[in-house]
Amino acid sequence: MSDMYDELLETEDEPEKKGDYEEKPRKVSGILKEVLGWVEMVAIAVLISLFITQVVLINAHVPTGSMKNQIEEGDNLFGLRLAYLFSDPQRGDIVIFKYPVDPEVRYIKRIIGLPGETVDIIDGEIFIDGSDTPLSEPYLPEEWVVGNDGYTFNVPENSYLCLGDNRNISLDARYWADVALDNGLADNYEEAMAYSYVSRDLILGKALFVYWPYKFKILE
Q1: What is the DSSP string of 37-76?
Q2: Long-range contacts: 28-35, Cβ < 8 Å, 24+?
């Protein structure tokens, strides 16, 4: 009888011990699987974010007021990298590009002159290819009185003339040749004029909309 009782205890205790032994690895395996799942989700999110910011969108911060009133000092905006994949930049587009004098720096300005055009700035007005009618520029925030006369630009092929909207303070194509000359990038003013234009390969994308701070604004 005692032997039977001992045998019964053994058969009842054994499964319980085995269950305790297997439960811990199962718990560890479940936690590990959950952690790996989160890591995978984060990795996918990072890859998607990198793809969007490196291939589709440009996230830009504008530190100056050179593009008022469309873009205010301190605004953050998104630009579309793929905007010119199947079409050419157009006059009036606000573009983000590598500064011709220093390609490590990004600028944002408006396209005024197209490839092959002659652009004259006379008494605060812009004339394209000798036209008698000045370019309509309703986006200018105030009367243009600084650097507003005596400029002629012969835009090279595959390049663009870009100016800021707030031209009384904007460091744009009117001044880049002087900066290039001062920095020793050219031997004379004629050579330095090459830095006045934004070549197609320097254009990173078209500015789309401001999203910060505390506002959403589509750019025109």
Answers
A1: HHHHHHHHHHHHHHHIIIIIEEEEE--SSTTTTTS-TT-E
A2: none
Each residue's pLDDT, cut to its tens digit, for the chain (220 residues) gives: 444 434 433 444 445 555 555 555 666 677 777 777 677 777 766 565 555 566 579 999 999 999 999 999 999 999 999 999 999 999 999 999 999 999 999 999 999 999 999 999 999 999 999 999 999 999 999 999 999 999 999 999 999 999 999 999 999 999 999 999 999 999 999 999 999 999 999 999 999 999 999 889 999 8
Q: In the annotation, is 109 catalytic?
A: yes
- Measured over the CA atoms of residue 62, residue 64, residue 66 and residue 67, the dihedral's sign is positive
Structure tokens at 116: 């092959």
Q: Which of 17, 33, 109, 217 is catalytic?
A: 109
Identify residue 176 by its one-letter amino acid code. Answer: W
Q: Counting Cβ atoms within 10 Å, is residue 151 exposed (0-12), middle (13-18) or buried (19+)?
A: middle
Which candidate in 18, 24, 27, 66 is catalytic?
Answer: 66
Q: Is 2 a catalytic residue?
A: no
Spatial distance between the Cα atoms of 184 and 83, rounded to a whole number of angstroms? 34
218 exposed, middle or buried (CB, 10 Å; 0-12, 13-18, 19+)? Answer: exposed
